[in-house]
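thread from #wetlab-drylab

HS: before we spend reagent money on co-crystallization trials with magnesium ion, can we at least see a predicted complex? here's what I'd submit
DV: go for it
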Amino acid sequence: MQESDKKTIIELNNVAKHFSDKAGNFTILEHVNIHIKEGEKVAIVGPSGSGKSTLLSLFAGLDVPTQGEIVVDGVLLSKLNEQELADYRNKTIGIIFQSFELISPFTVKENIETPLLLSGVRNDGKVRDLIGRVGLSERSNNIPKTLSGGEKQRVAIARALVNNPKVILADEPTGSLDRETGKKVLELLLEEIGEEKKTLIIITHDLSIAEKMDRVFEVKNKTLHEKH
Ligand SMILES: Nc1ncnc2c1ncn2[C@@H]1O[C@H](COP(=O)(O)OP(=O)(O)OP(=O)(O)O)[C@@H](O)[C@H]1O
Ligand SMILES: [Mg+2]
């Protein structure tokens, strides 16, 4: 298939994000335009505080833009009601947070199967298979506080994949891991996403990771620039 035949999966048109606090109103992002095609693997880099996580929250529908529109898989996010937005977050996208955000009283298995159960699906076989693929079969009944950082990150990856989402959003998935573990976790993530049509947006400080992606964008001067 020709590159140009591929469908646009994520589209941001002239998006801006302002925040207000006691000191007034300030702009984090403005004039953000990006079109990502289905199956593309995209890195977002930029200094700390530049707005990368804010951008990911906008993609994820966890936050709303002050201006502009966000269309994911043909759906204008601002048109969705709360329930539709919850479904979007649960089914269309899978999010891997930098700080894992695992549910602390839940076991590895329960954390991973939660998105499935929220979609009204029970599939023990699929969950078991995924736990095996991320190498956590022996840890299936552990709770997060008994896991290492790399193990927690693998739970977060499995949880993001369990509903077979079209888009994976990952916020520095290797940021809190040592280099060697980080490399293994990234390889695992790329392997799981595979050659499939899944789209990956990964925020990273690690240029060696960014170089592995199809496209690299930098958040700079409050907007997004494609790097060549
Ligand atoms: N809810 C909020 N209210 C006010 N300001 C916010 C809010 N969320 C983020 N900010 C501010 O927006 C800016 C961008 O934050 P963001 O977390 O997106 O940066 P980042 O690029 O992800 O940084 P890092 O690399 O350190 O994770 C920061 O100055 C932050 O303080
Ligand atoms: Mg961040």
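DV: The beta strands are 8-21, 24-37, 41-45, 67-72, 75-76, 93-96, 167-171, 199-203, 215-220, 223-227.
HS: ok that's useful, forwarding to the group
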